[in-house]
Amino acid sequence: MRKSLIAIGVAIISLMTISCTKDAGVVEGEKITGAEVLLEHKLVGNTIDKCEEGSLLLFLEEETIARIEKGEIEAVKAEIIGANEVLSFEPALVMPKNESLARELGLHRWYSVSFDKSIPVRKFAMEVAPSAHVTAIEYNTMVSLTSDYNARPFNEADYAVTRAAQTDIPYNDTYAYYQWNLSNSGDKSIADTARKGADVGVVDAWKLCAGTPDVVVAVIDAAVQYNHPDLAASMWVNEAELNGTPGVDDDGNNYVDDVYGYNFSTDGYSNGQINWNIEGESGHGTHVAGIVAAVNNNGKGVCSVAGGSGNGDGVRIMGCQVFEGLYSASDREISNAIIYAADNGACIAQCSYGYDPSSYQSDNAYINVCTLEYNALQYFTAPENCNHPSIGANLAIYAAGNETASNAGYPGALPICISVTALGPDYLPTGYTNYGRGCNIAAPGGDYSIGAQNSSNASQILSTCIREVTGGDYVWMDGTSMACPHVSGVVALGISYAGKLGKTFTGDEFRDIVLTSVNDINSLMTEGTKPYNGVADAVVLKNYHKRMGTGAIDAWRLFMQIEGTPSVAVAVGERCSVDLKEYFGGSAADLTYRSIEISDEARETLGIKGEPKMDKGMLVIKCENCGSAKVTIKAIAGGGQLGGGNNIGGTEISREVSIISRGVSSTNGGWF
After folding, report:
1. What pairs with residue 422 in β-bridges?
2. In DSSP terms, which residues pair with 654 in a beta bridge?
3. What are the pLDDT digits (tens) for 150-168?
4. Which one is the CATH code of 154-559: 3.40.50.200, 3.30.413.10, 3.40.630.30, 3.40.50.300?
5. Whole-model pTM?
6. How far is Cα 22 from Cα 331, in angstroms, rounded to an integer?
7. Upper half-sphere CA count for residue 606 (Cβ side, 13 Å)
8. How far apart are the C-alpha atoms of 307 and 317, rounded to whole Å?
9. What is the pLDDT of residues 49-89, one digit of tens each?
10. Do 175 and 473 touch, CB atoms closer than 8 A?
11. Does residue 411 have a cis bond before it (omega within 30 degrees)?
């Protein structure tokens, strides 16, 4: 689905250089008044488009904050506001749990003032600009989800051909055979160009770990229907509020009745309660949540990337609602949602929204305008706020955007975030996806334009939705909005697996292995075209070559990197020779190899019928199936025979290697 947001902010470092006096006034006879000059000096972003009426954000002097904290808030308010009547003057953010870091980032210095909506925002801003208490002024710009709301209802009766016999998903979820994004057999009922293995490589990863409840993913989006039949058991639950007194902040986190998360849309209908039964609801947040963690193996609906195995496992979803029906969220509300996620246990922020890519063309351009949100993201990703011991820092994962632009939208383009581009079931870029600068990694997002003639919806992503919105519990959608939660789900699985193994990483280390746990797609983008929106040759593939991020996310590869097990990639159905010198050293071709050990399960998974062999340091293997499995290769270090007994000889060495068989192999002969 298409979406964008427009917001504002200020670079804290630049705020410190601004000086101004309360005595500046109007220069008579000139078009620009002294107040206007001061406003331009203090104004964050210098844009008033789509800002919230009757609202303004102020960044106050540190000395002013000290006075407020001593109980002088009414006096300070009078000195800033003067004779103007206001409805409220209060901190813009709920004080974060990590107060020392919040103060270091200047989050405590942001205040929100609300006033009568009949007063023009710029006029009110000029009234407060002369105050020496005010270091900077920010229009409270509204975040807009500019989706076409094109959720296509799912009706199984519409599909004459089922894929039940063609999927290797091991779970009993009713509609699993439509989920090519999890297991792509290359079925032409999806698309004529569907490619085997163009999925997230999760089926074999599930054999090792299907998710754990200590991993919490905050879905910062529209409402997540927490009682959805396929999501209820996957929801994060605030037990203190669930078992507490309604209308009371039972856990003392400054949010009342936040049982499954919170609704930050303060101008909406619901006073903090997550609400999806309202005019204008899109079902977007519920669809995203289902991709991450719809309950697996429960005999109903769909599977998800990290929804467990049906044994009460699976990761948990925290609902952070920032879009409510026709209402959007302001910069203030988005920032509170990000901080809430950090303070209440989320280790992943799943963010399928983003600024239009034309808004900012550099990190500094974004940071200098959107500092409040940027500081909130710094707070979320700070190592000291990490919410899982295995990863060193929380991760913020964003959709790259759907404008077909040659750069990602912010804030996903920031180095502290992960920006996700979208692929179709053909393993090729979709016609809508952004690409190029700021884009980090690719994942299935769906591609309506290439759908098979009789079932064009099937080339999109099937996931959970809100019955009141579409008339059913499941719908098709496509977009980088859908690609993003695939990466969030795979990352959540990886964190779960790292925890299971007792592995720990720094934040940078874990981010690095995520962004290198990919399959090659660049070899498919050297020439040719594909259709988009009815135009046959709309997508020129060479324009996307090396510009979709590092490659296509693969859950098995991530697991192998967490383990420390090397992986090699081969093309399904082809006899491949893979050079193993990186694993057995520069003289791998001269070693004596004793055996290649493959379990029966691995043979079946990879479709190995003949016997693999070693030929001068090259593993020669043919896999008939798309899949991932491990083999063990044994060799002799030193000589042609093992030592022991009456022999004098070498020592046996053994390396476990992961084989990944997909519809395409990497251009360097299988190495990754």
Report:
1. 443
2. 634
3. 788 887 766 544 544 457 8
4. 3.40.50.200
5. 0.91
6. 27
7. 27
8. 10
9. 667 888 899 999 999 999 999 999 999 999 999 888 899 99
10. no
11. yes
